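Sequence in, structure out. First:
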Amino acid sequence: SQYVCDNLRFLKEAVDDLLAAVAPSGGEGETTEKPDPEDLEFLCENAPGAVDEALQGMERITTIVKSMKNFAYRDAASEKKPQNLNQAIETTIVVASNEWKYCADMQTDLDPNLPSVPCNVGEVNQVVLNLIVNAAHAIRGIKPDGEKGVISISTKQYDDFVVITIQDDGGGIPEGVQAKVFEPFFTTKEVGVGTGQGLAIAHNVITKSHGGHLWFETESGTGTTFFIRLPLTAVQETAEAESKSESGDESQSA
């Protein structure tokens, strides 16, 4: 929003200068000072760009606000329902943009034919958000100022499950701590940067709440890839279980 405000201030000053230049004289015999040609040339060259940047900034602010509202709305839902994971991931990328946009370029390869995935999309959003933030921190920890890394996110279906991959080209996870990554309160980050709960909660959400798997591959100096595997059968199995339960209740009441 800062550059939107800066551009609008510039445009206001430009309009004020132009209005002052074309204003009628104050009285008989007084003349209006002609605008400096160099000032007019400067305004003509820069005003259109300022307008474009202000409009682009407002569009981006609108996109972020909508994404945050969508993210919050989905987070409030506790049921596991068929969800558009690609759309959820795109929303989460926007919500997390302040974490990664200054240190990494974001690349996505989202399967356009990905089926709806039965899940608590709010919980999955939080897991993806946590992994994006971790990826950004990993890149920030090794890249010189001004040099960007890459975060890549993809989705793909494999038979009766889908896999989300989140890859970074940060420093990787040291071999000596890899076995502890999903333990509560374990963190390699500086004090005040992480609580050590993010990956433990993410692992619990994916494995226990969704019957999926969360794992990673890492190489020192090359980066880390996290994999989220979610089954496609949860809704069908739940429906069958409810149907059997209802049939049993009817038999008992008969």
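Second:
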Amino acid sequence: MKAALLLLSISSVGAWIAPASTFHRPSTTLYGSIAPKDFKTGLTIQIDGQPTKIVEFQHVKQARGAASTKTKFKNLITGNTLQKTVQASETFDPAQIDRSDAQHTYRENNNWFFMDSETFDEKMVSDSIVDDREDWIMEGMNVQLVEFEGKVREGGLDEYQSGSAI
């Protein structure tokens, strides 16, 4: 009885605050579709069945028209960039990518070799993925690898080293 009165008096005053875990909302990727209002730089979605990373975007609201989003995408398989205006009603599926921390071990011919920090497996990455950033990666450096369908498609330096992608 005392606990009920205490709870009643606290709720009537407004002093009771729900725990932070009550307000946790899962990301939109759990629900299966991503709308342009949920776009973030670096988000990876599927366009025509291929993983595509959002490089930059800008929301545009016209006076009488519907809102749209001008977006620049980068295809992670081909490396091509695409600029497209996306309507607010369009939705996209999230790309099923795996991110893993790895350490650069060595380079041989046109291939770079990384060791997965959790499984200690060796992963080979071609020069075309590393592209023109080879001067920034040194042996022993930690990177984050992005895999799609079992193949490394992209990688990024750890944030404390640099914010740019390899």
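Remark: Confidence is low (pLDDT under 50) at residues 2-14, 20-29, 162-166.
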